[in-house]
Amino acid sequence: MTRRATLTRWDELAQEKLTEMVSRKMISGARQTVAQVWFKKGALVARHAHDSEQVTCVLDGALRCTIDGEDLVVRAGEVMVIPSGVPHQIEVLDDALLIDTFSPARTDWL
Fold it and tell me: In DSSP terms, which residues pair with 79 in a beta bridge?
């Protein structure tokens, strides 16, 4: 089997509007998913957990994350790692742009 690299340009992907407060663009490989995620201030991602480890890089804005019952504020220029299977919730404090990566890939997003 031949394995080949692929190239995707963020600006050529359609932005997927999930709600009035949340939209994203995503790319998924065999073992990981990466997404640009836009949140409007006041958005809430309900408490959930997933098999993927999540690495969130906040490029702009601020979030309050409740991770396994503990609050953590993450701001532009900071990176948060959420281990696989750990319950977490996100409240958006200021309009935000994130890069989220997940490993293994988020097959539930495909």
Answer: 57
Q: 3 lies in a domain?
A: no
State the average pLDDT for the chain.
95
The residue to which tokens 């948060």 are assigned: 80
Task: Give this prediction's pTM.
Answer: 0.91
- For residue 99, give the nearest of 72, 84, 79 by alpha carbon: 79
Q: Which domain holds residue 76?
A: 35-104
CB atoms within 10 A of CB 85: 11
Based on the structure, what is the number of domains in the chain? 1
At residue 54 the predicted structure's pLDDT band, cuts being 50, 70 and 90, is very high
According to DSSP, residue 14 is labeled P
Residue 58, number of CB atoms within 10 A of its CB: 22
The CATH number given to whatever domain includes residue 73 is 2.60.120.10
Is 13 among the domain residues?
no
Q: pLDDT for 2-18, tens place per residue?
A: 578 999 999 999 999 99
